[in-house]
Design a protein that fits this description.
This protein is α+β, with helices and mostly antiparallel strands. The protein has a domain of 93 residues: 2-Layer Sandwich (Phosphorylase Kinase, domain 1), CATH 3.30.200. It contains four helices and six strands; from the N terminus they run αββββαββαα. It has a six-stranded antiparallel β-sheet, covered by helices on one side.
């Protein structure tokens, strides 16, 4: 399964990284294609001053059957099977990936009306008049 397939199955946004690979970005890391059958998740939170969050995430991931690939003080990476729902859900949570918003028909219609109303309110350019000093003319 590719990253694009995984993202489509789980309503996630993808992005092309600097090295032209497709990733799923998150607030605390990213999900990427590890090899042909596995995906990988990177945990890296530079604002995290303690290692507790990473150690807790690592322990939960290993208990779910994910394989540790890199282990650092406050960051690391694990590989997981994207077909395994528990591992996929945990990888999404560890990387803190946001889901795509799905709008209802009612929300979509309200948004369309608001956009149409905004497009109708075309403002005329404001022309300011300047009075030249000493002439009294505009």
């Amino acid at each position: 399964m590719t990253v694009a397939d995984f993202a489509a199955n789980h309503r996630l946004k993808t992005r092309v990284d600097d090295d032209n690979t497709t990733i799923i970005p998150g607030r605390h890391g990213q999900i990427y294609e590890y090899d042909d059958q596995l995906l990988g998740v990177i945990y890296s939170n530079p604002r995290d001053k303690a290692a507790n969050r990473w150690l807790t995430a690592k322990r939960e991931c290993e208990a779910a059957g994910m394989t540790l690939q890199q282990f650092g003080d406050r960051e690391g990476s694990l590989s997981f099977n994207p077909e395994n729902r528990a591992q996929a859900k945990l990888a999404i949570r560890v990387a803190a990936v946001k889901f795509k918003r799905i709008m209802s028909e009612k929300q979509r219609e309200v948004a369309r009306r608001g956009l149409a109303a905004a497009n109708l309110r075309v403002r005329e350019p404001q022309v300011e008049q300047y009075i030249l000093p000493g002439t009294g003319d505009a």
